[in-house]
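Tokens in:
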């Protein structure tokens, strides 16, 4: 599979709104023997990043963005059903994301790979107030708090939440991870606001959180990000 060409072809099909063609194209990728986990990280994730960036900069219409994100979420969900599953035991993850459909899609890609790697993921989505997050930390007792595919508008609240967690204490073993979304668009932001870990792709997130080398699916997806950056 030629990665650059595959990403570009899938992107064009998705923004056209042709769901049947998108499903057929993804089915063709599956016949190449590439693990579904790698397809999610090396194809679906960079396409997701391109969609978000181009829409954010007014280079993609609302209808094309809606077509693409919804169809991509469907084919990604179907692909996730074929992931190889590790035994449970990697610990609990509490994960929140940005407010848009695209950010939820990016978070779902990460959630599916984390679950396949053996994590118990509590996916809270977007719009959850800090006091509710703090309450969930006490109730769920996760090993990891992941703030993934966040929007730029979320950054001040995330900074305040991290400060609050560290000031209050009570979660000495909690590791906070930020990545995707605004954290990919602003290198160094995750560390600046107090994150313990940062990751740029779902596979990198799995690798950072797991206690075993389970993320052999790693693929940086950098070429697509560079292309999206040039297009913007």
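Residues out:
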């Amino acid at each position: 599979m030629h990665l650059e060409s595959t990403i570009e072809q899938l992107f064009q099909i998705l923004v056209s709104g042709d769901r049947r063609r998108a499903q057929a194209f993804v089915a063709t990728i599956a016949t190449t023997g590439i693990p579904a986990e790698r397809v999610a990280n090396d194809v679906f994730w960079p396409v997701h990043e391109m969609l978000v960036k181009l829409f954010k900069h007014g280079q993609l219409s609302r209808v094309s963005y809606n077509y693409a994100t919804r169809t991509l979420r469907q084919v990604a969900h179907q692909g996730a059903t074929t992931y190889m599953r590790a035994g449970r035991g990697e610990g609990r993850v509490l994960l929140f994301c940005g407010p848009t459909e695209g950010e939820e899609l990016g978070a779902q890609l990460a959630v599916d790979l984390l679950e396949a790697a053996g994590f118990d993921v509590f996916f809270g989505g977007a719009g959850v107030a800090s006091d509710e997050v703090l309450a969930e930390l006490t109730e769920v007792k996760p090993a990891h708090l992941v703030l993934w595919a966040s929007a730029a508008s979320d950054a001040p609240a995330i900074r305040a939440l991290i400060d609050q967690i560290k000031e209050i204490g009570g979660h000495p073993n909690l590791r906070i991870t930020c990545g995707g979304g605004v954290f990919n668009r602003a290198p160094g932001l995750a560390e600046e606001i107090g994150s313990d870990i940062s990751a740029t792709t779902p596979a990198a997130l799995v690798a950072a959180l797991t206690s075993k080398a389970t993320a052999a699916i790693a693929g940086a997806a950098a070429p697509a990000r560079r292309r999206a950056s040039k297009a913007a």
